[in-house]
Amino acid sequence: VCDDATATWKTILEEVDSYDLMILLGDYAYDMDMQNGLVGDEFFQDMQGVASRIPAITTPGNHDFAFDFFHYRQRFFMPGYQNTQNMWFSYTIGGVVFFSFNTEFYFDDGYDAEKDVQYNWMESELQKLQQSEEHLWVIAFSHRPLYCSSDESTCNGNPAKIAMYEELFEKYHVDMYVSGHIHYYERLWPIYKGVPQKFSNPGEYVNPKHTVYVVSGVAGNQEVYTKPYPPRDYSVFTNGEIGFSRFTVEGPNSLTFEQVSSYTGKIIDTFTITRDAPSDTREQAQPQDQEPIFLRSA
Description:
The chain is of the alpha/beta class. The protein has 7 helices and 15 strands.
């Protein structure tokens, strides 16, 4: 709950009818449990104009951890709620299948059973998807990034804890992984084991062989925003301006991603993923040694 978040909701509301879905990447309200839940109430009042018009899918963040994710479990109702209480699920819309999972399990010692169940569920669902004949975009999202240029331990310490998901993404051809947590925007090349696949045109990824990673954590928060660090070799673009991400699915062979300023509505960054064959074009690739998002269908 802050002025920047209010600006984000206002800009989105102005064009809400052009969207089919919103994705929320965790850390709601800062924090939903504060003042006996009143801060959470205020947050949901702020987003009511948008949430009453388009559906939302979610994932929990570290600021949603209190009381065993109590407020997150009680304030949202995601697919498969009776089985997982919003901790993980998949959802298909507009030619895209989304996989939401909980990275916070890996930063606390009390969730060993949940970690195993979540991982096994995701692998099983990805296997089924791979065996189907549907040519869908596959996008995973959660709160914490696998890759970013920040030198904070909150980024660099993540891959060691959740690296097994990178292996799943690679094995089952997940097209994109989107996360928040770090308070800036960063777009990266397709990556596997820290090695980027670069293209001559940084705005167009043609038949990427690996998962594309995006950090979108700058829609509004009450903490200090993370200064974009010097980009690493696998980074394409970083920006600290308050904004949100959106992408347009233009069919099974083209997806355009944009970062939008919350205060001006201008596009800060854009790139397109194109593919002329199903995602299994990545079978030829060999391992080497070396916050909200909005979907609209074209």
